[in-house]
């Protein structure tokens, strides 16, 4: 269990990226959903011991993460948002090198580790190819392989599916689902479907604050009967926004489809829709913007 209490992070320029964040993250897959600039990477980097928060505490299975970062690093796997350079070395050699850095000293252990990880992430057939020539999906699978060296109990993946095509995304998410037994995996993303597809627990972070948390299905159930849809001309959007609690808009066949949150039918031409996680997310963001800072 990962337990975060009252975490605050203020950058040198005065930006308060985390504002009293408290979270309990159980074993399994946990989705941290938030728009760009919400503070997700700041939170991920704080948990991964890459930066020290201004105040607050992080505890993982009895390890005081802020006081004892080295202890956490032994049981941590991290796939950063930006994995950085992809050198002209083969996947095999790079993974072997990273295993050395992570302290897998014996050559025999390393061979076993590297081989089994390459198989697990389905990169065995291309193990001798240079990482520089890998596709986005292959790179992310390599990223997971390196994160899994040393059997970590806490795995952090920061926006891993951004830029992947649907097939690669699927493959990547399936891989995450397979390793989620007995470990804590935090998936930070701005893609609602990533969370809907595979996270039994989630939180929405916006403006540095946790706006909502719970099980996606429960959060969706809480909105039952409160989401309404109407198709309007795009010229009517401004008026609709003034009149209703519009949580999302999208174009469909040249018209604008709005989703409105309301306890009863908001007006003429509205039909009820079964809300999804996207509605939960957008409603949460809309509500968070209304709160004066
Ligand atoms: N090193 C830094 N110095 C100053 N401000 C920063 C720094 N890093 C991030 N910020 C600011 O902190 C806030 C949160 O940024 P963060 O990168 O954590 O958000 P995010 O949710 O990960 O967004 P994104 O998906 O765009 O990376 C933003 O306002 C950002 O501009």
UniProtKB/TrEMBL annotation:
InterPro entries xref list? AAA+_ATPase (IPR003593), ABC_transporter-like_ATP-bd (IPR003439), ABC_transporter-like_CS (IPR017871), P-loop_NTPase (IPR027417)
Keywords from the named record = ATP-binding, Nucleotide-binding, Transport
Which family does the UniProt entry place this protein in? Belongs to the ABC transporter superfamily.
What SUPFAM superfamilies does its record include?
P-loop containing nucleoside triphosphate hydrolases
SMART domains named in the record: AAA
Q: Does the keyword Cell cycle apply?
A: no
Q: Which residues form the signal peptide?
A: none
Gene3D superfamilies according to UniProt? P-loop containing nucleotide triphosphate hydrolases (3.40.50.300)
Query: Which organism encodes this protein?
Result: Brevundimonas goettingensis
A single GO molecular function term of this UniProt record: ATP hydrolysis activity
Top-level taxonomy? Bacteria, Pseudomonadati, Pseudomonadota, Alphaproteobacteria, Caulobacterales
| Record carries keyword Nucleus | no
Residue ranges of the ABC transporter domain? 2-232
Pfam assignment, any one: ABC_tran
Q: What is this protein called?
A: ABC transporter ATP-binding protein
